[in-house]
Design brief:
6-stranded mixed beta sheet; two-stranded antiparallel sheet; DUF58 domain-containing protein; DUF58
Length: 292
Amino acid sequence: MRTGAGLRQEAETLAGPLPPLLAAAEHLAASVLTGEHGRRRTGQGDQFWQYRPSHAGDEARMIDWRRSARADDALFVREKEWQAAQSVALWLDAGQSMEFSSAKDIATKADTARRLALALSVLLVRGGERVGLTNAGLPPRTGQVQLLRLTDALASPAEADEYEAPELRGIPARSRAVFFSDFMGDLAPVERALTRAADRGISGALCQVLDPQEEAFPFDGRTIFQSIGGTMVHETLKAGDLRGRYLERLAARKDALSRLARNTGWQYLCYHTDRPASGALLWLYGALERVH
C-alpha cells in the first residue's frame, strides 16, 4: 500500500509546475456555478431529498411521523438522496482531423475537446465522482492525482489515422460516458460502440466538436481541400457549387448522430470552437445527470 508521502511525491512528479491545460480547465470549471453535486435519485446518503406518500410494503420505521401528522389520513416517507460515487469514462478522438483550426485565434478541435473534457473532470471529481480516460487505459478514479494523470494523458500527440473510433475499454457496466469527436469519419464504428454501450447499461453524451469554417463552408472559386493527415486531397475550380451538397450532408450527419444518441439512451451536443466553452461544459455536466 502506498503511503501518504508516496502519493504526494507521485502528485508532485506528475504536476511539476501546474500544467497549462489543467490551469485552463480549472478556470473554465470555476466559471460554471454548480450546487452541491447529487444524483437526484433515491438511495443511500445523508442528504434529505423529498417526502413521498407511503406505499404498501413500507416498514413502519420508514414513516416520517412528524410530516405525516400535518396531513389528513396520509403517511409520508422521508427519502434521502442517492450519493454513491459513480464512474464516468471519457473518450477523445485522437485522430488527425481533430487538429484542424481555421484561424490562429481559434483553438483546434483537439485542444477544445481536451479543455472541455478536463474541465468536466474537475467538476466531477469535486463532486466525488470517479473519472477515467479510455484512450489511455486510465480506469475511473477520483482525486487530484487522477486529474494530473488525465492532464498528462490528454497532452499526448495525435494518432496517425485521420479518424479514430470510440473506445469502450475499461468502461464499467451501468456507468456514464462522454465521447468527444468531430464525428466526420465513418459512423459505423460509432453506432457499434453506442449499441454495445447500451447493451451494458452505459449511457452518456456525444459531443461533436466542429470548427466554424466546417459549419459555414465559406469557399468559392479554385480551392484545394486537403485532410490534416494529407491522405485525402480534392481540388475544384468551383468550390461554391459544392456548398449546398456539403451543408446537406453535414445536416444529415448531425441528424444521424442525434437519432443514434436518442435510440441508445444517450444525448447529443454540437459545439463550435469559436463559442464560449462554459455553455457546453454546463450542458455536458447536466447531461450526465439527465441520462438514465
